[in-house]
Amino acid sequence: MQSGNEHPRQGDALLIIDMQRDFMPGGALPVPGADTLIQTINRWAAFFASHHWPVIATRDWHPCDHGSFAVNGGDWPVHCVQHSDGADFVYGLALPEDVVVIDKGVNPDSNGYSAFEHTGLEVRLKELGIRRLWVCGVATDYCVQASVLDALKQGLEVVLLSKAVKGVDVHEGDVDRALNRMKEAGACIVDDEVPDAQ
Ligand code: VGL
Ligand code: ZN
Questions:
Q1: Is the terminal CB of the chain with fewer CB neighbours within 10 Å at N or C?
Q2: Where are the strands (E) in the chain, listed by range?
Q3: For the chain, percent helix, then strand, then coil, each to nearest 5?
Q4: Ligand 1 pocket: which of 61, 142, 169, 182 to mutate (most atoms <8 Å of CB)?
């Protein structure tokens, strides 16, 4: 783990993954501790916004017939159905007015874990001149991991905010394995706090 070596700069964006009600404790597919990230992520979002650097927030956004749902033969309970309350961003998440919202997992035949899968995110980032992503949200071992690995494949740099992600650990050790895989692929994993506003 590195800390303090990276500083957000022009050409960076904050990527907030799936901070939606269904992923919070008590939700349809709870990620333990996900609610404890809200204030931390709000501070990161405010910091990026104060510098006019883009803030991007993804939503898991499944149709009712999504193949990842157990009722349709998949691994997960029904969650984040398009336009349902559970698919809303969690109460208290403070996103800047000009946040870029990316809906993912729309194709019924794919898990759609990655923020880059059929979402147009790659093109949006090019248009915005983004070369590096600061990543936070849930779940470390699914959508965060898939998004980070895809970003790196596209030649983007990635800083993973280890204090601003939580995972599900369906199999014990999944979160640690995900962190190792992201690190080996070239992500910079840091335990940074939000810098003081300048
Ligand atoms: C996710 C499982 C199913 C995630 C989404 O956001 O990591 N995990 N759908
Ligand atoms: Zn999903």
A1: C
A2: 12-17, 55-60, 100-104, 132-138, 157-166, 188-190
A3: 30, 20, 50
A4: 142
- Give all domains of the chain, ordered by start, each with its CATH number: 12-190 (3.40.50.850)
Whole-structure pTM value: 0.97
Check pocket membership of 61 for ligand 1, CB cut-off 6 A: no
What mean pLDDT do residues 142-149 have?
Answer: 98
Q: Is the dihedral of CA 158, 187, 118, 82 positive or negative?
A: negative
What are the catalytic residues? 18, 104, 143
Is residue 4 over pLDDT 90? Answer: no
**DSSP assignment of 32-62:** TTGGGGHHHHHHHHHHHHHTT--EEEEEE-B
Average pLDDT over residues 49-57: 98
CA distances from 70 to 8, 109, 126 (A): 40, 13, 36
Check whether 115 has a pLDDT greater than 90: yes
Token pair for 158:
């990635």
Q: Is the CB of 76 under 6 A from ligand 1?
A: yes
Instruction: Report which bound ligand comes closest to the CA of 19.
Output: 1
